[in-house]
Amino acid sequence: MDCIFCGIVDRSLPAELLHEGEHIVAFRDITPQAPTHVLIVPRQHIDSVAELEGAHGEMLSEMILAANTIAQQEGIGDAGYRLVFNCGRAAGQSVDHVHLHLLGGRKLGWPPG
Ligand code: AMP
């Protein structure tokens, strides 16, 4: 399978890694949309959030807790930040490996485009 994020997880592709956990890896987005833009991805290849099941609960919890920890490390924990899963093409998903966006460091508009 030809998956960019699997390549980052197995270190065959480069990325600025910020955090590694039992089930997850976090790295900076290559095209940041905010001063802090980090992606938190599962080590396991799963195409989309739509495919998640109850058995993925521990992994999902690790993703969100890692995002909170990284937000603090990035100095945006108090100001506020956004966590986003894009699910499917209409929502803007371009990489078919589940990923949580952590965005912050500027005022974020709502609703999103
Ligand atoms: P999405 O559009 O929600 O699927 O998000 C995919 C994200 O992956 C985008 O924000 C891209 O900038 C980012 N991205 C794509 N390739 C890489 C890469 N090699 N390293 C880091 N981030 C990437």
Q: Can you describe what's shown?
A:
It is a single chain. This protein has helices spanning 4-9, 57-73; strands at 17-20, 24-28, 36-42, 81-84, 100-104. The chain has 113 residues and is of the alpha+beta class. It has one domain (4-104): 2-Layer Sandwich (HIT family, subunit A). β1 and β2 form a beta hairpin. It is globular and about 35 Å long. The structure holds adenosine monophosphate.
Q: Find the CATH topology.
A: HIT family, subunit A
Full CATH superfamily name: HIT-like
Q: Look at the structure and give the CATH class.
A: Alpha Beta
End-to-end CA span: 31 Å
Low-confidence region ranges: none
In helices, the fraction of residues equals 10-25%
The proportion of strand residues reads 15-25%
Radius of gyration, in Å, reads: 13 Å
Number of helices, where a helix is a run of at least 4 consecutive DSSP H or I residues: 2
Bound molecules: adenosine monophosphate
Order of helices and strands: HEEEHEE
Mean pLDDT across residues: 97
Shape: globular
Task: Please tell me the total number of domains.
Answer: 1
CATH architecture: 2-Layer Sandwich
- Spatial strand order of the main sheet: 1-2-3-5-4
Quantity of strands, as a count: 5
Largest sheet geometry: 5 strands, antiparallel
Which structural class matches the secondary elements?
Answer: alpha+beta
Descriptive labels:
single chain; 113 residues; alpha+beta; HIT family, subunit A; five-stranded antiparallel β-sheet; 5 strands; globular
